[in-house]
Every structure is written in C-alpha cells, then in structure tokens.
Amino acid sequence: MMRIMAALPLTTLFFTPAIASNTGSGYISAIHAMPNGVVMFSHAAGRDAVPNCVNASTSTRWAINAVTESGKVQLSVLLTAYGANKRIHIFGTGSCTAWGDTETVEFFVIDG
After folding, report:
1. Which of 8, 28, 70, 97 has its CA 20 to 30 A from that of 36?
2. What is the bridge-based pairing of β-strands 61-65 and 38-43?
3. DSSP 8-state assignment for residue 8
C-alpha cells in the first residue's frame, strides 16, 4: 500500500492533461477556411488559460477540423451564430491538433 501511495504523485506528473481554455462571451470574426479543411476564426473574449502551443499573435484564434463529421456540425453551428450576430462561449481541447499554433475547439455554447 505504501508503494502505491508513493507512486501516486509520479503518475499524476506524467498523466496531467494539457491546459484547455475556456472563454467568456464574445463575438466571432475573421473566419478563415484553409485548404486542408481546417476553419479558423477569431473570438473577442478573454480566456482563462492558454495552452503552450498558442502564442501571443494567435491567442484570440480558434480552429475547427471541418473534415470530420463532428467538425462539420461545429462549423455549421458556428456559421449560424456568426450570421445571427450571436455571442458564444468556447471550450478548448488544450491542444493545437487542427492547426499548429491555434487551440482546437472542443465545443462552444451560443448565448441565448
């Protein structure tokens, strides 16, 4: 039992998830559709955390992989919110898998 307790801090060191961002309510702008199917956009709201893959010049930008089925759904809802001039809250993945210096969107919520 003592060995398990001693190893616990080491396992949390190696399996700690990346820092994922959450935003306040903000408007969508500057939508870019890239040749590989990734759609990036800017969001005018503060973030509570920024993963290491994001730099100062991309800190307001987010990415959606619109090649996947779930990404297509996210893009459709994003464009609907944009067209209706609605604000959204974004929750990130904590990684930049869709675009190297831009956090990938996990999900977002449209303000009522």
Report:
1. 28
2. antiparallel
3. H
In sequence order, what are the residues at sequence separation of 6 or more whose Cβ sits closer than 8 angstroms to the Cβ of residue 90?
Answer: 21, 22, 23, 43, 45, 62, 105, 108
Q: What are phi and psi of 43, to 5 degrees?
A: -140, 125
5's tokens: 């307790």
Say what the pTM is.
0.82
The more confident residue out of 63 and 14 is 63
First to last CA, the chain: 51
- Give pLDDT tens digits for 58-96: 999 999 999 999 999 999 999 999 999 999 999 999 999
Number of C-beta neighbours around residue 87 at 10 A: 18
Q: Is 7 helix (H, G, I), strand (E, B) or coil?
A: helix
